[in-house]
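Structure (tokenized):
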């Protein structure tokens, strides 16, 4: 797992790809110690740019929400990018507003098995 702080940029040599955790687009996760009708979802905007492609922002989510086209795994340049962790979790006292700039994500990058559905532009 490769970890990023919000705003952090890393060049992943193994994949010849520059990765930037831009921000959180949405965090509607149910705060800890509360009861909610649904668990909610958080969505991270992560920019990828390989040495052979233009920059592309992928939205990686904590849950599959087909109605909003949110997915835990997205494709880029022949690789599957998967969101494995997103912290911290909102609390009932703080909510999500105080978390801006403090988010951390963990992603994995793996070779796609089927090259026909790559989203490289």
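Design, position by position:
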């Amino acid at each position: 797992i490769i970890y990023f702080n919000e705003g952090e940029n890393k060049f992943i040599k193994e994949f010849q790809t520059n990765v930037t955790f831009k921000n959180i687009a949405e965090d509607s996760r149910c705060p800890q110690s509360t009861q909610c009708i649904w668990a909610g979802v958080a969505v991270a905007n992560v920019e990828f740019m390989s040495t052979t492609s233009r920059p592309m922002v992928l939205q990686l989510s904590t849950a599959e929400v087909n109605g909003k086209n949110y997915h835990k795994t997205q494709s880029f340049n022949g690789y599957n990018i998967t969101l494995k962790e997103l912290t911290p979790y909102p609390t009932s006292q703080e909510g999500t507003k105080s978390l801006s700039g403090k988010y951390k994500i963990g992603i994995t990058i793996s070779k796609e098995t089927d090259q026909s559905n790559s989203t490289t532009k």
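Reviewer-requested clarification: The beta strands are 2-5, 9-12, 17-27, 42-50, 56-61, 73-76, 79-87, 104-111. DSSP finds no helices and eight strands in the chain.
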